[in-house]
TrEMBL record:
Segments forming domain CAAX prenyl protease 2/Lysostaphin resistance protein A-like: 171-272
Disordered: annotated span: 1-28
Compositional bias annotation for Pro residues: 1-12
Biased composition (Low complexity): 13-28
Protein name as it appears in the record: CAAX prenyl protease 2/Lysostaphin resistance protein A-like domain-containing protein
Pfam families linked: Rce1-like
UniProt keyword list: Membrane, Transmembrane, Transmembrane helix
Superkingdom assignment: Bacteria
Membrane-spanning intervals of the chain: 37-57, 69-89, 109-138, 158-184, 205-227, 233-253, 265-284, 290-312
Length: 324
């Protein structure tokens, strides 16, 4: 059964066309959706820069030990921007609806399993494609690259093969913990922003949310996050490519599961699998971030293929309107 049935248009035309319908005396007219979207994006970006400002002062950057805590705090800014925008520019609907907080008790459980395991399998396939393409040399016996990384921190407490096995087991459960942190972003991207764009075609929603999501990472990407071996502005462009492809897959999860819980879980799984290339790489190599794993072109190829399958099987209809 198609988990994403065709959705009817929300109205005869974009919600921003023409003046808002008059309401009862003394009531506040809802702000146009486009205005809500723009205000949200500006707030999310501004809050991200404010949170990450300490990373830019004093030349500390990502090498500063507390940097991960600031990045984690930055992940809450889209949700905060969404709540602030909804309060400043209300449209008369419950905040729960605007943020996509529906819990998929009766539908979408199969999609949640895909959201949990799919990114892990996709990340593993991207590593395999990197190895086939020659951009990553694997060591699946001695895990010499991982051992090299750990030995730089001190003596190994256990054999490296045992440590790899423990890490892989943790990788299965990490998406749930990471998904809680990722919800701070998803309440903004697949929650508020998607809702504000619900009168647009699905392809437009994916493109806008993907680019906004990618450029929102500017405070850390420009410091070398994710693409440390690329010029800062080029890295930001690469990040936007990655997030746009991923946004298409998360849009299917969002539509099929009916809320942001699914995208949050999938987002958490992607973050959890980010270090997979380091786990299986051979020692003595410095692979390019653009050519290895899910963040590099092997991952882009696989994500684009997955999006094509969803479109061809009509599970991600480019022309479908978003539910209101």
């Amino acid at each position: 059964m198609d988990p994403t049935p065709a959705l009817p248009p929300t109205g005869p035309g974009p919600a921003t066309a023409g003046p808002a319908a008059p309401g009862p005396a003394g009531t506040r007219r809802p702000a146009p959706r486009l205005v809500r979207a723009v205000v949200f994006v500006l707030l999310a970006d501004a809050l991200a820069w404010v949170v990450c400002l300490p990373l830019w002062t004093g030349g500390r950057g990502l090498a500063w030990p507390p940097a991960p805590a600031f990045i984690l705090l930055m992940m809450t800014t889209p949700a905060l921007a969404a709540v602030l925008t909804a309060r400043l520019l209300p449209d008369g609907r419950p905040l729960r609806t605007v943020l996509g907080l529906a819990v998929p008790w009766r539908r979408g459980w199969g999609v949640l399993v895909v959201a949990w395991l799919g990114p892990l399998l996709l990340s593993a396939a991207a590593v395999a494609l990197s190895a086939v393409a020659g951009t990553l040399v694997l060591d699946l016996r001695g895990f010499s690259g991982y051992a090299e990384t750990l030995e730089a921190l001190g003596p190994l407490p256990l054999p490296v093969t045992v440590l790899v096995a423990v890490t892989l087991v943790q990788l299965l459960f990490a998406p749930f913990l990471n998904g809680v942190a990722a919800a701070g972003e998803e309440l903004g991207w697949r929650g508020f922003l998607r809702d504000a764009l619900r009168d647009r075609r699905r392809a437009e929603v994916v493109l806008v949310t993907g680019v906004v999501w990618g450029t929102w990472h500017a405070p850390v990407v420009l410091l070398g996050y994710n693409y440390p071996d690329v010029a800062p502005l080029a890295a930001l462009g690469l990040m936007a490519v990655f997030t746009t492809l991923l946004a298409a897959l998360l849009e299917w999860v969002r539509a099929a599961s009916g809320g942001v819980a699914g995208p949050s879980l999938a987002h958490g799984a992607v973050n959890a699998a980010g270090g997979l290339p380091l786990l299986v790489a051979a020692a003595g190599q410095r692979p390019s971030s653009v050519a290895v794993g899910l963040l590099g072109w092997p991952g882009w190829v696989l994500m684009a293929a997955a999006v094509a399958v969803l479109v061809l099987t009509r599970r991600l209809r480019p022309a479908a309107r978003q539910e209101g």
